[in-house]
Amino acid sequence: xxxxxxxxxxxxxxxxxxxxxxxxxxxxxxxxxxxxxxxxxxxxxxxxxxxxxxxxxxxxxxxxxxxxxxxxxxxxxxxxxxxxxxxxxxxxxxxxxxxxxxxxxxxxxxxxxxxxxxxxxxxxxxxxxxxxxxxxxxxxxxxxxxxxxxxxxxxxxxxxxxxxxxxxxxxxxxxxxxxxxxxxxxxxxxxxxxxxxxxxxxxxxxxxxxxxxxxxxxxxxxxxxxxxxxxxxxxxxxxxxxxxxxxxxxxxxxxxxxxxxxxxxxxxxxxxxxxxxxxxxxxxxxxxxxxxxxxxxxxxxxxxxxxxxxxxxx
Length: 314
Description:
Layout: E1 18-20, H1 25-29, H2 34-40, H3 42-64, E2 68-80, E3 83-95, E4 101-107, E5 110-117, E6 121-126, E7 133-138, H4 154-157, H5 161-167, E8 178-182, H6 191-194, E9 195-202, E10 205-211, E11 217-224, E12 229-240, E13 253-262, E14 267-277, H7 290-297, E15 301-305, E16 310-313
Parallel strand pairs: 7-15
Antiparallel strand pairs: 1-8, 2-3, 2-14, 3-4, 4-5, 5-6, 6-7, 8-9, 9-10, 10-11, 11-12, 12-13, 13-14, 15-16
Helix pairs in contact: 2-3
């Protein structure tokens, strides 16, 4: 991602935990494009210069991880009408291109949930309930971390494929992303500790990402448009993963440990990857085909949730 691709703009409303990069009043009054800002504002120019290689490294890593799978252990702490709950489960994560993905949650070999989706719809199969059921979210903006607290079982919405990719630091940074200064950061700290990247994920939420000196994401935070935190992911323990047609030295790295905290739903998700791979050997097309999944899992009912109504079919 070149400097001209990344905009540096002043937010109309100060976001929680972030303030815009310092830009002279003359620039604020007359918005400039990124290239002009680098000429007129030395601070912004330094940030662009520091972040250009980090963004390039992130883009290259994400490209290599378009297909991703891993076995993992999963800890869920959440609240519902019956109180506080804590579960330890196993999970299989399958992420493919075109926003396709699936997360299978099991416990002692027993299927609990299947969470998946494609570019058009998202779904959750509740396989441990009596009766079993599936909920299909039609026309869902499936970067569902931004919708989690308005969905049933919001903590599980954080595991939908597009949300999982985003919170695990595997999402591409769009070209119209912003650079924002991190509030409270030391003025003499390295640029990657002073600035984060922010972009809009859909009409109701933004995501900000902090990168380490090596270009690897260290934190991903989703906020609503008022700046209230919906979910924050902390990424640690990066490991290299085998990728097709690449020498070992060029293998991409992923965070082995991801912790997601969702304050509104009082949920905590801890994900520990075991055997991550970018080869896709276990991924099958039927994982992302709703009709095939319904035929295989045979839920007792299927509920189709539209933006304005809900329809249940036996």
